[in-house]
Design goal:
heterodimer, A: 110 residues, mainly beta, 6-stranded mixed sheet, 12 strands, globular, B: 116 residues, 7-stranded mixed sheet, 4-stranded antiparallel sheet, 11 strands, 59% strand
Chain lengths: 110, 116
């Protein structure tokens, strides 16, 4: 079946630190991969996506590379800001359904 | 970007009563809407998919008589939790897809339901 596993949080960092949030997946076929972000009191927003192996999605300084050989889609940012504090969800899409990980809360302190 | 709202954001009800949650696409026409449920520290689980003007398609294990979904217009879908029980307490999230972009789902902020 299809599933997404991401690291448990919370992840607590100081401003300007390097961020990695791990995400691995299990899927049949060739899914598209996504990272969504949920800021406090708001809905999930698409952060970035990749549709095939070796694609790199990027947005707002965040990056993730679709690694088929390791079935991973780790989220990285070189220098986090306080405003990046949110919950991050890794997801895959197979056929028409989005399948989400459990979410990782990121807390960035000044 | 596209905005999806949910109402109410939080609701507390007594066991045995029914609760209706609204999901609206504010600036685009949503041909498809999705309803998810999220338990603490767990994934969003898709409950059902609804297309405007047709019956919702429910995921395996979701009781369609328990969770009534209506998608009567291109901007509104409702989820009614009938005869709610404490185990129905959860975070319910809707998303919508439509307009010129059939690839992206736009999510509402969620509704927290507590059944006493």
């Amino acid at each position: 079946g299809n599933s997404v596993t991401q690291m448990e949080g919370p992840v607590t960092l100081s401003e300007e630190a390097f961020l990695t949030i791990n995400c691995t997946y299990t899927a049949t076929g060739y899914p598209s991969l996504f990272w969504y972000v949920q800021y406090p009191g708001e809905g999930l927003q698409l952060l970035l996506k990749a549709t095939k192996a070796d694609d790199k999605g990027s947005n707002k300084g965040f990056e993730a590379t679709y690694r088929k050989e390791t079935t991973s889609f780790h989220l990285e940012k070189g220098s986090v800001q306080v405003s990046d504090s949110a919950v991050y969800f890794c997801a895959l899409k197979n056929t028409d359904k989005l399948i989400f990980g459990t979410g990782t809360r990121l807390q960035v302190f000044p | 970007g596209a905005v999806v709202s949910q109402h109410p954001s939080r609701v507390i009800c007594k066991s045995g009563t029914s609760v209706k949650i609204e999901c609206r696409s504010l600036d685009f026409q949503a041909t498809t809407m999705f309803w998810y449920r999220q338990f603490p520290k767990q994934s969003l689980m898709l409950m059902a998919t609804s297309n405007e003007g047709s019956k919702a398609t429910y995921e395996q294990g979701v009781e369609k008589d328990k969770f009534l979904i209506n998608h009567a217009s291109l901007t509104l879908s409702t989820l009614t939790v009938t005869s709610a029980h404490p185990e129905d307490s959860s975070f319910y999230i809707c998303s919508a897809r439509g307009g010129g972009n059939q690839e992206t789902q736009y999510f509402g902020p969620g509704t927290r339901l507590l059944v006493l």
